[in-house]
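Can anyone check this?
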Amino acid sequence: METNYIIYKSVLVLAVFGITLFIAMYSTYAERKIAAFLQDRLGPNRAGPFGILQPLADGVKMFMKEEIIPDVSNKFLFLLGPSLAMLTCLMTGAVIPWGSSVAIAGQSYSLQVADVNIGILYLLGVTSVGVYGIMIGGWASNNKYALLGALRASSQMISYEIGMGLSIIALLMSTGTLSIGEIAAQQHGGHWNVLYQPLGFLIFIICAFAETNRAPFDLPECESELVGGYHTEYSSMKLGFYLFAEYINMFISSAIIATLYFGGYNMPFIGRFVHDPNMLVLLGTAFLFIKIAFFIFLFMWVRWTLPRFRYDQLMNLGWKGLIPLAIANIGITGIVMWWLGKI
């Protein structure tokens, strides 16, 4: 029994790891195709049919590029920065419930790598460590543009992590649990949290844009004034790690939004038509990935629609806009729950 459990968990970890890398890889292709559509051009169309092999060509190009480490850099930290950025974004997928439990040979197995009872705190803790990869890389480069990008990234992520954390508090008051698996399970039958926490969802998704350094919040890598920002001195696959980490963060953020606010793997009314438990699990997982694909598209749509903020606008939105709104949302949630007799 114990051996089967270890084998199953190992397979699940490898599956989550592989799917995360695959979706992040092809998100780069989807981004260029969506940008091309919005700008009335073709996008990648040479590497393979419809350009679908373009991500593989990009990966080969990254590996074949010359590896350059500046002489005046701190070499150990220079290598540690992109490694830490990749490690932290991959760790977050461990607590996301990708589906309910499947039955194999009479034994039930959960489609969640680790159902820890403080999953929300784990997510916030790991994502907060992710900024160190950017800070260390920018500082170790010994380049003024990279250092300014690292400073921007650290102040931006700290500012928007506060708003994100406060927006989740109202959700936790409604659900009464820190377990992401339990939050997903509570949303069965169409009782999605976005219906009860619309303002919290709006604050969370705006903070997610800032946390992933996506436009219009891409000030840490603002090419108009900082060349490339924190990764200016990076080349070859070390640069690829930083760029890849952004797409992984976008995928994981979409999965978290879909799970916390849009029911996760739950599908309203589908149980009336499908009665096989394992088929319901597979359909639920597919439904979750459809939601994730929608939010990834939203990330890309916003990038190619809205202009970049000025830095003072970025800080004002976080400190003077989102944080007061999140605190007000906590108060409103508390009053409503008291009125309903739940506290």
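Reply from J.R.: I decoded it. The mean pLDDT is 90.
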